[in-house]
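Posted in: Structural Biology > Protein-Ligand Complexes

Title: Requesting predicted complex, zinc ion in pocket

I'd be grateful if someone could produce the 3D structure tokens for the following input. Sequence and ligand are given below.
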Amino acid sequence: MSDGPRWMQCPICKETIKWNIPKGALKDVERFPAAIVIKHHDHYLVCYVDSHLQLADTEVASLFIEATD
Ligand SMILES: [Zn+2]
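-- Reply #1 --
Done. Output follows.
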């Protein structure tokens, strides 16, 4: 497992973004790929990482909403 900083090109604004999975943050994940939401400026990306914490896929979130109870 590598949990160092990683870089990718933001599919929305094309900037290079650096992101980091906090150490141990995915230790309880039982199913991979695991989805991670990355906020960049005013947009959100959904990234999927495999069990080696390598980027498997990236999606652009069309909308971010906060649910209420
Ligand atoms: Zn961006």
